[in-house]
Amino acid sequence: MIDYKGKVALVTGASTGIGKAYATELAALGSHVILVARSKDKLEALAKELSSKYGIEAYALPADLSKPGAARLLAEQIAVLALNVNILINNAGFGTHGRFEEISSEREQEMISLNVASLVDMTHQFLPYMQQKKNGIIVNIASLGSFQSIPYMATYAATKAFVLSFTESIFAENRHLGVRVLALCPGTTKTEFFDVIGTTEMPGGINGTPESVVKAGFRGIEKGRSYIIDGISNYWIAQSARFLTRKFTAIITERMTRPASSKTAASIPASGKSK
């Protein structure tokens, strides 16, 4: 069993959803927590709650990690507090939903910056200390979408495919250095994510919870996994890509995820060939 007591955990996107659940569980296990998100009020309220309830130190550091250089500035703030990060939870991120050409280019670029560039920069900032101490944990929040294309969420799925590939590579590089690295891949989860992308309707419904996702994350770290998928049904959905062509999977997924306003009576041929 990994001992989390007295460790310093940095959680991004900590104000709600999976990030808040991760921060809460780490605090319950005795870790001091650094909470990062854009919402100052929510962070400060959570920091006060966790500190009072679990007797740990909790720090609220508001930041917009989608901005260039934000990770470096955050690392400098943490250094001023004389803290060293033992656990990094790269959770901050968001998605977009709709036809690609109808989504704001600026919004897409902001998403790429947060989901990809910031995650890489955060890893650059805090991995070396863990390597030096030959002890540490990095959890990067990927997605079930890391394993296949998702029409109408094209850029989001691509960013999460990057997260999975990047994380597995960093896992392999550090497996003998005492640093555990995990890509945590949730399916649809009951968080504010779907409010942000502007839809609450997804194929199969929205069934996961932040708590179930976090539980899977801890399990994956304990087992020394490079990635873990939350939920048995989600696992088999991800594995289906092994048995179906990528083209067929993309066509089927397009039919399932097409925005309601764009749905037509057109059917997909059984062969999976588009006309």
From TrEMBL:
Sorted UniProt keywords: Oxidoreductase
Origin superkingdom: Bacteria
First and last residue of the signal peptide: none
Annotated InterPro entries: NAD(P)-bd_dom_sf (IPR036291), SDR_fam (IPR002347)
GO molecular function: oxidoreductase activity
PANTHER family assigned to the protein according to its UniProt record, in alphabetical order: NADP-DEPENDENT 3-HYDROXY ACID DEHYDROGENASE YDFG, VERY-LONG-CHAIN 3-OXOOACYL-COA REDUCTASE
Family label: Belongs to the short-chain dehydrogenases/reductases (SDR) family.
Protein name, entry field: Oxidoreductase
